[in-house]
Inverse folding.
């Protein structure tokens, strides 16, 4: 029996079969394609449709982009060079880049600029906004990245005054007095704020105003006329620079205002709570354009009769109020998301309200609110284009106004609009990527 | 011997206003009230002085004066002799029109893009990601201008449709895309039940509402039947008949016919003209807001835990039914609150109409009327009042809907 069985077995494996490569459909590119693009009929159809859409997009834009003309002085010349071929006329960008970036009235090469830096940064004499922009990067870096040395924050504190002086020019005394006022306020708060927050706060406000009034009286009349940097009136600012200035100023001003509004809305004092609620709901209920109308036609009626507040400042006030209301709502969400125990723990440690907020509540609430705040900031930056509606010449205003209306470049739509879209995309996409990085960085919970 | 007595009553000291929690909040509120009153007094005083210096007063009587300007795109009767109030009404209706249209299309775009972004198809999901990122990160004003430029500078003029060797032709001989706007066929009734077209359309609307109501009853009946017998009756054909038979009958009785736009002279005549500004605003708001809605939809679907899908699959439900019966009803709860704020954004962003010359409320009341009459304060106040009312109404209606789909907890 046993023999029979052993004999009837035709083959006995005496070793491992050598490993063979997986079938072609189960590996590499083919598998990836089958899994991700052609897993079933619907998917295959979708893939083919998408490929066709991509082909259409590229086929219509690539020749246009690649044939682009970068050197010409007018659209007519551009068309001559292209000679009937489809092609972009990027020459408008090389011709008018200074208008797109700085507006059409910002002083170009002045004698002073040549004297001081000898056209160190650019030959065109736009070194003032350029330097301000470079310094902005330095100033904003320690705020965005915590790993940088904290000493750099000192420069951040000085930066607004420096940038004001660089861009608007005029006497250096004005921003200097403003800076000294803030330093005095900070000193008073440091000295008296330890005992009682209220005393320190009101003392600081009083000190700042005292410095500003005395200092303002000390600045001699006509100090701006022979200043180192020529004074530039606000209406001469324009282009992308104006968008950047509005964006940076309004975001940084609306953040503290938004925090105050959010805390006010949570307050147990009915009067303060209702002031904040009405303000927030009112501002969130109307479009930004109506607020800009207020800035351009209505706000002047609310200032003292003899004063003239320039349009830039009025617009900054309104946009700041607008974004502060949105930031307040975001932070309110953060405050509400904190467990009740955090508030109670702060109370039981014997901290008073300002201490509890500053040390316990706000750091946690702000961390939760970061994505929302960044969204508001991106939205605000995009909304700065709306000032073109009230005839300020920001990037969009420059394109629609002076450039498209000029005889040379009448009809160059896509190159200009594409450029505007590109610069906004770069900044906004960058900010949102930063926010995602920051969220990962701040995530202290275990996942 | 000594007797224990209460500590002497300290009485009221001034410092207690700041240091005693019993009085402190009162002190702060009084200070706040005084500061607020001072601010209002200061601003009001400036306003009165400035108005007096400019020889103005606050009065709304200008609303009754003839407006003296024409509006192309309008839903109600209007000519240049109508009052400013009438012009404002035209503007209000135009705002509501574009906001409504954009809300509908933005939702469609957003849901499609949001669902496709979660698709297994790598290419499709990447394409949708690119769409979302590009449209979210570029200002809506630029999109409006880009689409307006396409509508005016790229579309052919009516002249291109004329002659034997016309360079452009009408799509299906029904639609004409020109740089003056898009012309589409207009339905009208030859033998309507009423004299006015408006009443006839109301009859059609009433018919549709009735059909909707009856199909709802059919669903309820089917549910009961299923609970009683375990068998769900097939209702699809019944519902289809309820929707279409009365509708078709109504159309037949009233004699539906189409007025097709025709090239006459220098321009197209007949049909409905949808102006370039309206299309630019509508389409730009839709794709821009659609990108935001896509993100909300994606977040909503991803918020539903995988276990739900797997449980539904374990019960033997098919892919489509898992989406319709299990995932979407739960995801809606997450999606609706941000969707409300997107609708509010559309309504508010429709005020950008002024950039392309669409006659919405901002362009009529806040634009031409304001410039003609110089009544800045009155016009801006009315404008804000309208937007506040619209925003509050939308959020109220959507909140009612939100609470009806909300998770009912005991």
């Amino acid at each position: 029996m046993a023999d029979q069985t052993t004999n009837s077995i035709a083959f006995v494996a005496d070793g491992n079969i050598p490993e063979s490569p997986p079938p072609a459909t189960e590996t590499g590119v083919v598998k990836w394609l089958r899994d991700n693009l052609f897993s079933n009929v619907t998917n295959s159809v979708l893939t083919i449709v998408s490929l066709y859409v991509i082909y259409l997009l590229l086929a219509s834009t690539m020749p246009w982009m690649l044939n682009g003309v970068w050197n010409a002085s007018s659209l007519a010349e551009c068309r001559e060079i292209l000679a009937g071929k489809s092609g972009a006329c990027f020459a408008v960008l090389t011709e008018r880049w200074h208008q797109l970036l700085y507006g059409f009235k910002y002083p170009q090469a002045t004698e002073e600029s040549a004297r001081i830096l000898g056209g160190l940064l650019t030959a065109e004499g736009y070194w003032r906004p350029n330097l301000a922009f470079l310094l902005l990067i330095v100033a904003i870096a320690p705020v965005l990245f915590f790993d940088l040395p904290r000493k750099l924050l000192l420069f951040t504190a000085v930066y607004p005054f420096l940038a004001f002086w660089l861009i608007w020019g005029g006497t250096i005394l004005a921003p200097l007095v403003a800076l000294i006022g803030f330093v005095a306020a900070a000193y008073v708060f440091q000295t008296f704020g330890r005992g009682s927050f209220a005393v320190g706060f009101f003392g600081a406000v009083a000190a700042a105003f005292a410095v500003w009034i005395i200092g303002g009286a000390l600045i001699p009349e006509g100090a701006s006329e022979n200043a180192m940097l020529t004074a530039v009136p606000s209406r001469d600012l324009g282009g992308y620079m104006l968008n950047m200035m509005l964006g940076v100023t309004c975001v940084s001003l609306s953040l503290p205002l938004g925090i105050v509004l959010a805390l006010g809305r949570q307050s147990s004092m009915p009067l303060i709570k209702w002031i904040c609620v009405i303000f927030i709901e009112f501002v969130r209920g109307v479009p930004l354009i109506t607020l800009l109308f207020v800035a351009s036609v209505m706000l002047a009626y609310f200032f003292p009769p003899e004063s003239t507040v320039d349009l830039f400042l009025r617009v900054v006030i309104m946009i700041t109020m607008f974004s502060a209301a949105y930031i307040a709502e975001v932070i309110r969400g953060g405050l509400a998301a904190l467990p009740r125990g955090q508030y109670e723990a702060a109370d039981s440690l014997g901290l008073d309200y300002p201490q509890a907020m500053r040390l316990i509540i706000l750091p946690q609430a702000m961390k939760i609110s970061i994505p929302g705040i960044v969204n508001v900031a991106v939205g605000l930056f995009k909304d700065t284009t709306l000032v073109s509606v009230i005839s300020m010449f920001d990037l969009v205003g420059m394109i629609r106004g002076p450039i498209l209306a000029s005889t040379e470049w009448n009809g160059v739509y896509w190159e200009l609009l594409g450029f505007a879209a590109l610069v906004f995309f770069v900044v906004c996409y960058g900010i949102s990527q930063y926010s995602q990085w920051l969220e990962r960085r701040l995530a202290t919970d275990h996942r | 011997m000594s007797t224990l007595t209460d500590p002497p009553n300290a009485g009221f000291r001034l410092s207690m206003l700041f240091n005693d929690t019993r009085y402190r909040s009162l002190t702060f509120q009084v200070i706040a009230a005084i500061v607020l009153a001072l601010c209002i007094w200061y601003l009001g005083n400036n306003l009165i002085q400035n108005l007096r210096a400019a020889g103005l007063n606050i009065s709304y009587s200008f609303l009754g004066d003839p407006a003296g300007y024409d509006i192309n795109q309008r839903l109600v009767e209007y000519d240049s002799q109508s009052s400013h109030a009438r012009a404002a009404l035209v503007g209000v209706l135009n705002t509501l029109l574009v906001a409504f249209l954009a809300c509908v299309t933005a939702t469609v775009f957003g849901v499609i893009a949001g669902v496709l972004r979660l698709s297994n198809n790598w290419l499709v999901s990447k394409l949708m990601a690119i769409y979302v990122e590009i449209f979210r990160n570029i200002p809506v004003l630029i999109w409006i201008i880009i689409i307006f430029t396409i509508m005016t500078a790229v579309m052919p003029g009516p002249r291109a449709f004329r002659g034997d060797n016309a360079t452009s032709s009408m799509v299906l001989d029904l639609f004409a895309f020109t740089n003056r706007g898009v012309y589409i066929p207009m339905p009208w009734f030859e033998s309507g039940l009423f004299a006015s077209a408006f009443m006839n359309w109301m009859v059609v609307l009433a018919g549709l509402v009735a059909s909707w109501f009856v199909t709802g009853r059919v669903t309820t009946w089917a549910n009961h039947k299923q609970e009683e017998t375990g068998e769900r009756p097939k209702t699809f054909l019944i519902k289809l008949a309820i929707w279409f038979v009365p509708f078709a009958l109504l159309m037949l009785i009233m004699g539906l016919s189409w007025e097709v736009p025709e090239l006459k002279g220098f321009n197209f005549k007949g049909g409905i003209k949808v102006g370039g500004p309206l299309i630019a605003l509508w389409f730009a708001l839709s794709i821009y807001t659609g990108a935001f809605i896509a993100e909300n939809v994606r977040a909503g679907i991803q918020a539903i835990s995988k276990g739900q899908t797997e449980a539904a699959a374990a019960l033997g439900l098919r892919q489509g039914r898992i989406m319709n019966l299990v995932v979407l009803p739960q995801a809606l709860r997450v999606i609706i609150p941000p969707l409300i704020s997107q609708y509010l954004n559309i309504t508010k962003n429709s005020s950008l109409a002024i950039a392309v010359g669409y006659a919405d409320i901002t362009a009529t009341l806040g634009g031409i009327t304001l410039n003609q009459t110089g009544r800045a304060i009155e016009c801006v106040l009315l404008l804000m009042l309208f937007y506040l009312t619209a925003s509050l109404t939308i959020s109220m209606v959507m909140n009612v809907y939100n609470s009806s789909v909300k998770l009912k907890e005991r």
Summary: The CA atoms of residues 104 and 191 of chain B lie 32 Å apart. The radius of gyration of chain B is 30 Å.
